[in-house]
Amino acid sequence: ATHDEKVVWDALRLIDKYQIKKDRYEFQMLLGVEPKLRRLLLKEGHRLRVYVPFGAEWYAYSTRRLKENP
Predict the structure, then answer these.
(1) Which domain holds residue 35?
(2) How many domains does the chain have?
(3) Tens of pLDDT along 28-62?
(4) Residue 27, exposed/middle/buried by CB under 10 A (0-12, 13-18, 19+)?
């Protein structure tokens, strides 16, 4: 799971290089992060899961994750 655009593009290059079928991988991103990149991946037919934190500590968790991986 990543919202780092460079990592996504690197992954796409490897997927293309090794001709990995779209049913063999997926991308995952935290809700609210990189909506343009999410739309692009979906438009190109890639599977994408959106991670939605919930519960009493959802905000603190989300903030912490974004600080760890800007």
Answers:
(1) 5-68
(2) 1
(3) 988 877 889 999 999 999 999 998 888 888 888 87
(4) buried
